[in-house]
């Protein structure tokens, strides 16, 4: 019989892709995988020296971020990588401690620090923050301001026993309306609620009636929830602004999902944040 025809030669291999094209193809494959949609913003988990109560050691607003001195450099780097292009990230100490998030309270308009803050610390903060941010010390016996006050750029909830002069300073320096309130019968409102201009999360045992009342006061949606694997102290386990959030490393995926949803982080962009002061949303309290 005649010999079989020779096999067809294999096609030549395609030319190698440049590195940028290979990266693009890998990114396309990742996007094609189910559940791999890339979100524009999300909450980041981190800890400070093995402590997941990051709200004790940091304070985040739409205009600046304060981070405690010391600790792991990764803690500061996590904030810097997310925020440095948009707002200053400042390492601080307050009254010789690292408790910046519990001793201070602020928003895009201003920052209040306890009377125990040293002159050097005050000067460092003033030099580090934008000129538009008013920084002032407060004479207040409840000097853990971060525990006693919760605020966004327009409204604040405060400890019922806060001094009247401090209440006036809050209104003047931060430009907010002030309401004396409790959260789930807790007077340290700064520890049990965290809210931005987009939404907020509060103590898991907050009743439906109280949630509705608080949401009406603040004019933002609220949910009852937890951080750090069931912790009800949401103010110490979470810091957030209108486009990003940071929570303790122990926070579970379901908790993270609730946080991202209520704070509207999934499509948030820094450029979308309104910088002009809007008129107050609250006319009266019934």
UniProtKB/TrEMBL annotation:
InterPro entries: eIF6 (IPR002769). GO terms for cellular component: cytoplasm. SUPFAM superfamilies: Formin homology 2 domain (FH2 domain), Pentein. Keywords: Cytoplasm, Initiation factor, Nucleus, Protein biosynthesis. Residues 1-40 are annotated as: Disordered. GO terms for biological process: cytosolic ribosome assembly. Residues 25-40 have a biased composition (Basic and acidic residues). SMART domains: eIF6 (SM00654). Residues 1-19 have a biased composition (Pro residues). GO terms for molecular function: ribosome binding; translation initiation factor activity. It is found in: Cytoplasm. The keyword Protein biosynthesis applies. NCBIfam families: eIF-6. This is Eukaryotic translation initiation factor 6.
């Amino acid at each position: 019989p005649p010999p079989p025809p020779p096999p067809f030669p294999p096609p030549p291999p395609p030319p190698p892709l440049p590195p940028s094209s290979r990266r693009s193809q890998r990114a396309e494959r990742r996007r094609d995988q189910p559940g791999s949609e890339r979100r524009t913003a999300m909450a980041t988990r981190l800890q400070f020296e093995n402590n997941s109560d990051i709200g004790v050691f940091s304070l985040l607003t739409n205009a600046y971020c304060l981070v405690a001195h010391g600790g792991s450099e990764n803690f500061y780097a996590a904030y810097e990588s997310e925020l440095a292009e948009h707002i200053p990230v400042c390492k601080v100490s307050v009254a010789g401690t690292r408790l910046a998030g519990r001793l201070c309270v602020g928003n895009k308009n201003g920052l209040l620090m306890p009377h125990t803050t040293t002159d050097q610390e005050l000067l460092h903060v003033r030099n580090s923050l934008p000129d538009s941010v008013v920084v002032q010390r407060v004479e207040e016996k409840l000097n853990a301001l971060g525990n006693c006050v919760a605020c966004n750029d327009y409204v604040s909830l405060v400890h019922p026993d806060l001094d009247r002069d401090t209440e006036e300073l809050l209104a003047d320096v931060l430009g907010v309306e002030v309401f004396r309130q409790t959260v789930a019968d807790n007077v340290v409102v700064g520890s049990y609620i965290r809210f931005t201009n987009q939404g907020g999360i509060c103590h898991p045992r907050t009743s439906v009636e109280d949630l509705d009342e608080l949401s009406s006061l603040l004019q933002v949606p609220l949910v009852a929830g937890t951080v750090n694997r069931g912790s009800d102290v949401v103010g110490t386990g979470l810091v957030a602004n209108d486009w990003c959030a940071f929570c303790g490393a122990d926070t579970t995926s379901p908790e993270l999902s609730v946080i991202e949803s209520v704070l509207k982080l999934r499509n948030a962009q820094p450029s979308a944040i309104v910088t002009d002061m809007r008129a107050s949303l609250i006319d009266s309290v019934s």
